[in-house]
Specification:
By secondary structure, the protein is α+β, with helices and mostly antiparallel strands. It has helices at 8-21, 24-34, 41-48, 52-64, 83-94; strands at 39-40, 68-73, 76-81. The radius of gyration is 15 Å and the shape is elongated.
Length: 97
Amino acid sequence: MINIKLDINKLETNAERLKAIAHPIRIGIVEFLQNNDEKNVTDIYKKLNINQACASHHLSILKNKNIIISRRDGKNVYYSINKKIMEEILCCMNNTH
């Protein structure tokens, strides 16, 4: 039998993050950002064929769970994947932490 040590706090945190990702638009955002360095909200809503308000709403949810990070450059805000958090999620799922 394999002895697996579970950290309940990490599991709960990552479950919340997975719930945040688990929406078709947010999955699309994560996939788009995973394949690109940084994108602004215009790039994102045009790529996903949604309106700006919808994109901003979903970006806010992902940002609140630290799944994505943002960087302001003048009037533009650029979004990218928080690679450390995505790695934590994957490690938690694979139980390799």
